[in-house]
Amino acid sequence: MPDTNEETRRRRSIYLLPNAFTTANLFAGFYAVVQAMNGRFDVAAIAIFAAMVFDGMDGRVARLTNTQSAFGEQYDSLSDMTSFGVAPALVIYEWAMQDLGRWGWLAAFIYVVGAALRLARFNTRIATVDKRFFQGLPSPAAAALVAGFVWVAVDNKLNWPAASIAWVAFAVTVYAGVAMVSNAPFYSGKTFALGRSVPFWALLALVAVFVFISSDPPLMLFGLFIVYGLSGWVLMAWRWRRARQLKRRSVS
């Protein structure tokens, strides 16, 4: 029989290693806001991508070292709200949407609300959902869409009129906010185990991905997250079509 007192003590504990990654995630989000205020939007976008890396590490480190805690879960959620909710909205608003007036800050607010609702829903359903898929676009991926657009536009200096860039930024921001609260299933990657052996070709594929991204980081990362941001709708349409086919077969 498990020691319930030991389990309760462990859940209430504060562990340094995973929470250090969470703190790095929070700092990167805060740093992105500061850099956006200083007009360094490419650095702000890179900081949001760095926050994604730290966010991906804290949970895996906690599971690998068996240092999960209720404190860590809440701290991670609050940090995610800053780095993937508030920070991307402020960065893209400061960069492109101020001239849209109320439409600009409304788009940014839709994104922030979507991130808050997404994180709240995730926290309340964490024990009941399918671990293989997220319900709705995860907030780090939504932040990558927004920050990726900022980064690719600033880095490649798109020769678009300012008004066009502003309205594209509006559309990307609203889409990311709405996608977070949708029911579309997005692959989570949680079934991938770091300690599990993989074939040699998987290592080669990983190297190819790094080479692919390093050829043009802003463009490649933005492209990858566009594909991921649309994958949930494709999967939902496929499931809907398959359900209709099964229903027709059962009726016939």
TrEMBL record:
It catalyses: a CDP-1,2-diacyl-sn-glycerol + L-serine = a 1,2-diacyl-sn-glycero-3-phospho-L-serine + CMP + H(+). Its EC number is 2.7.8.8. It is found in: Endomembrane system. The chain crosses the membrane at residues 14-34, 103-121, 133-154, 160-181, 193-213, 219-240. It is a multi-pass membrane protein. One of its GO terms (molecular function) is CDP-diacylglycerol-serine O-phosphatidyltransferase activity. The keyword Transmembrane applies. Pfam families: CDP-OH_P_transf (PF01066). PROSITE patterns: CDP_ALCOHOL_P_TRANSF. Keywords: Lipid biosynthesis, Lipid metabolism, Membrane, Phospholipid biosynthesis, Phospholipid metabolism, Transferase, Transmembrane, Transmembrane helix. Belongs to the CDP-alcohol phosphatidyltransferase class-I family. This is CDP-diacylglycerol--serine O-phosphatidyltransferase. The lineage of its organism: Bacteria, Pseudomonadati, Pseudomonadota, Betaproteobacteria, Burkholderiales. The gene is pssA.
